[in-house]
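We store amino acids, tokens; thus:
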Amino acid sequence: MDRLGWSVAAKIQRKWFAGELNYANTDDGARIGINQNGQQFQPSMIDTTTIKMDWVLKFPRAKARLDELLNEKLFNRRAIDTLKRMARKWKSSPYVIDAWERCEGDWQKYHHEYQYQLVRVDDDWVSKGLLLAAGAATPILMDDLYGALGAFTFNAALSKFSYCNGQLKIFEVNYYVRDVFTFHDRKDGTASSAGSQYLGNWNEYGLIVVPSYAMLGEVSKAHMPHVARNAKITKDNVFYTVRNLDYREWQLKHGQGGDLVLYSNRYRSYFGYREPIVIEVDR
């Protein structure tokens, strides 16, 4: 990854390999950060410093999805319905609440209690497979962002707000990146859940992608032979097949390797104290 210029992806990989044994083994665990023991990921498995929003937004496909969140979905009908459900659980108070301060900087608590909307980035694995099968020698989505985060989300969460007499006033919203960095293969009953996600063919010099392997990985855990480029069996021409299940097998063999929850730094949308966003909760 370093040779490819994927510096952020390489940093996360090193942290994963050095971490304590920690992995999601259910779909819900992979989504919210529950490990093999049914426990929430420990604080050591929560990374809040590696992913920077400025870096993520250098990638046009990510910037386009964030624009969609901020311009179209921040307060669409689904978001408003979610906010109403959240507000109905709170006690009425005339005071403005700082949600981040109330959570004492605990990212997991903040996300689970105040996040209300999201958009997904790079989430369509089948489309990736079709892109590869179409013959793209170097797929568009194979870059440092893909290596570091794979499929991830931009999230919106309340920052400063008040809830009084059935009226929710929103003065500020935080938005940020969140990802559970895991090698869990879905068990949701879809066709792709029968396989193990293909992650490319690698050696110490770089990466190649075999389109048929990408498609096979969607539906099968069958062995995929390593690849000798140009039929040359040399150190720089043999590329080793890597899938999610290879990471899991490494973890179980060595008793080490930790799945992570990744958060970026927070950006904010500020609506002001004079004209906040107002939602009538009981309507």
Confidence is low (pLDDT under 50) at residues 130-140. The first helix runs from residue 7 to 18. Residues 7-188+258-280 form one domain. The CA atoms of residues 9 and 148 lie 4 Å apart.
